Amino acid sequence: MNITVRVWRQKNADSKGSMVTYGVENVSEHMSFLEMLDVLNEQLTLDGDDPIAFDHDCREGICGMCGVVINGQAHGPETTTTCQLHMRSFEDGAVIDIEPWRAGAFPVVKDLVVDRSAFDRIIQAGGFVSVSTGSAPEANNLPVPKGDADRAFESATCIGCGACVAACPNGSGMLFTAAKITHLGLLPQGQPERDSRVIGMIEQHDAEGFGGCTNIGECTASCPKGIPLDDIAQLNRDFLGALAKRATH
Questions:
Q1: What is the pLDDT of residues 6-28, one digit of tens each?
Q2: Are residues 121 and 156 in the same domain?
Q3: Residue 93, domain extent
Q4: What pLDDT sits at residue 211?
Q5: pTM over 0.90
Q6: Which residue(s) pair with 90 in the sheet?
Q7: What ranges make up the beta strands (E) of 158-219?
Q8: Domain check: are 120 and 237 in the same one?
Q9: First to last CA, the chain
């Protein structure tokens, strides 16, 4: 395959960026999208140019590090992570636009790399869970209904890649925040701090500059782990309930 890529190049956070066009020849359809970028970077390095900066780590769809907007879609045309997207999803001669996540809360660091530490601060705002230390507890000491366990596990699969934010026209991080809140809110271990957790995380979400959720649904459509929109409904119930309790005290 021979393709043309138009990549967002930006020297640093204070510089103005622009789309730059490159040709990439002899691309195997079995390459991952990131391997194609590796080939392009090798070509740029040999030509004496600055290679394209992009985030990646495990390249197994697990860590959530990778993530770019490909032809206007977060992670590209398939519902998967960028590292698990393969070049067979594109036609020979294709022109592919590659941009960083576009969100006010995710400032560009360089080229395709954005600062997603706002997610870390949201998690930190959730505080801790009350778990006694000591020897390992008996597995059946805290029985959890299977439905709750399955849903908590589903929410826990969020890898924090940020595709939900990039896909949302409001730049909202509500799906990420909801997944973290729902995960612990359904388990016995998460009950003591349930109210303070949801209030703290929502307040931090808003302080970071994420937009509000208007239930458009682009977030869950682009999520590589399939986090459901129901988690946002659960977040809203928990948040309103926590505010009501706080108002009565």
A1: 999 999 999 999 999 999 999 99
A2: yes
A3: 3-109
A4: 96
A5: yes
A6: none
A7: none
A8: yes
A9: 66
Same domain, 91 and 125: no
Rounded to an integer, the average pLDDT of 151-164 is 97
- pLDDT averaged over every residue in the chain: 95
Element (H, E) at 24: strand 18-24
- For residue 58, what is the domain's CATH number? 3.10.20.30
SS3 assignment, position 152: helix
Name every residue whose Cβ is closer than 8 Å to that of residue 35 and which is 6 or more positions away in sequence. Answer: none
Domain shared by 70 and 163, yes or no? no
Dihedrals φ, ψ of 138, to 5°? -60, 135
Here the tokens at position 4 are 């043309």
Mean pLDDT, range 36-51, rounded to an integer: 97
Total domains present in the chain: 2
Closest by CA to 222, choosing from 70, 61, 74, is: 74
Could you tell me the CA-to-CA distances from 13 to 32, 109, 148 in Å, in that order? Answer: 28, 5, 43
